[in-house]
Amino acid sequence: MKLLATCSLATLILGAAILAPVPTARAEDAPAAKKEEKKDEKKAADEKAKPVKGPRLFGLWARLTTLSPETKIKIDEIHKKALEERHVIDTKEEADITALLTDEQKVELQKIKEDDATKKKAAGEEKKKDGKDEPKKDESKPDEKKNDK
């Protein structure tokens, strides 16, 4: 099996070498080609040096420093599955409770949901506005307190 894989790999490499176009080099291209090679080598070395991180974790799990990338991936998969299951449970709960309501109560519930959505949207816009309207401290003028010495 290993011999077959080795032969296949050798055939693939040899075929690629034969079919690859032969580059023609000009004297003025040499410095540019060397720069490109150095960039490629540096990029490859940087990628090798970077540790494999895995997904970004949450809560207490994010504070564990000894988790392997494989464990992080498994934790992330468990979390995503749990989120999906919670969503299904929440949707079923809302449907079951809504089924108990009268038509008047359903209308009232819909109005409450719309009001909450409007308030949430307004709060988000207010938050954006507050962030943009904050005056920046003018660092070019010295503080008055410092000059009172």
Describe the protein's topology.
Elements: H1 2-19, H2 30-49, H3 59-63, H4 69-100, H5 103-133, H6 144-147
Describe the structure.
With 149 residues, this protein is an all-alpha fold. The chain has a domain at 59-130. Helices cover 74% and strands 0% of the residues. It is built from 6 helices and no strands. It is elongated.
Distance separating the two termini: 85 Å
Radius of gyration: 31 Å
* Structural class based on helices, strands and sheet pairing: mainly alpha
Helix content: over 70%
Counting DSSP H or I runs of 4 or more residues, the number of helices is: 6
Total number of beta strands: 0
State the major sheet. Answer: none
The succession of helices and strands, N to C, reads HHHHHH
Principal-axes shape call = elongated
pLDDT average, as an integer?
75
Poorly predicted ranges: 138-149
% residues in beta strands = under 5%
